[in-house]
Amino acid sequence: MPGGNVLIVDDDDLLRSSLGFSLEQAGFEVHTAGSAEDALAIVRASRPDLILLDVMLPGLSGLEALRKFHDQEGIPVIFLTARRRELDQILGLELGADDYLTKPFDPDLVIAHIRAVLRRTRAAPLPDQQPQVLSLGRLRIDPRSREAALDGRLLDLTPKEFNLLHAMALEPGRVFTIDELLTRVWGAEYEGEPQIVYVNIHGLRQKIEKDPRQPRWLVSVRGVGYKLSAPGDER
Question: Which residues face 219 on adjacent strands?
């Protein structure tokens, strides 16, 4: 179907049924699962374009399942959470999901978020805009292989951490506002939590800085935002 193939993973039968109906009416092909284990079987049999994943699932939790769906399978994931406290927990875990929605939600809002994530993940560079390897001091970023290395050591980055680092490396030294980073990395249609930028900056600092409490690569500019610099040799 033209909208894409969406997998809803939630142990609430009524939510799966009602949300699934709304998505089908909007032109999506829909599969549903009540557990992460069932969802994994569906993913292997019929790879979806996007997964709506509940945080609190029986058995294998949504938090534990994310990397199987997102990192290993390369499928974009939107987390579904029942309480704000759960959203704060997710953001604090730096899991790298593509978006977050807090229950209860309007089906039209879910559809808008799905379409926005799919537009971002399906976008491809034009032939004359093929990504080039970037070198910034001791940092090397290769968009083609989606690898970043510091002093020759590969950094274990989540997809969003890599995208954020790459976006800032395209204009080193420039100060980016939170809104600019949201637009560049999450897309102009993103309507989720701005805290997602802080979380990914925090995650990057843990992996790139010698002392994350005194960052020299990812520098905060008070009242404005962040910039990527190239500090001297700290080894």
Answer: 227
Helix/strand/coil (H, E, C) string of the chain? Answer: CCCEEEEEECCCHHHHHHHHHHHHHCCEEEEEECCHHHHHHHHHHCCCCEEEEECCCCCCCHHHHHHHHHHHCCCCEEEEECCHHHHHHHHHHCCCCCEEEECCCCHHHHHHHHHHHHHHHHCCCCHHHCCCCEEECCEEEECCCCEEEECCEECCCCHHHHHHHHHHHCCCCCCEEHHHHHHHHHCCCCCCCCHHHHHHHHHHHHHHCCCCCCCCCEEEECCCEEEECCCCCCC
Classify domain 4-122 at the CATH class level.
alpha beta
Judged against a pLDDT cut of 60, whether residue 207 lies above it is answered with yes
Roughly what angle, to the nearest 10 degrees, separates helices 159-169 and 195-208? 80
Instruction: Compute the distance between CA of residue 193 and CA of residue 90 in angstroms, rounded to an integer.
Output: 12
The domain limits of the chain are 4-122, 128-228
Distances in Å between the Cα of 197 and the Cα atoms of 105, 167, 179, 183, 226 are 23, 12, 9, 11, 10
- Closest alpha carbon to 141 in 171, 111, 107, 99: 171
128-228 folds as Arc Repressor Mutant, subunit A (1.10.10)
Q: What is the mean pLDDT of residues 1-29?
A: 89
Q: How confident is the model at residue 113 (pLDDT cuts 50, 70, 90)?
A: confident
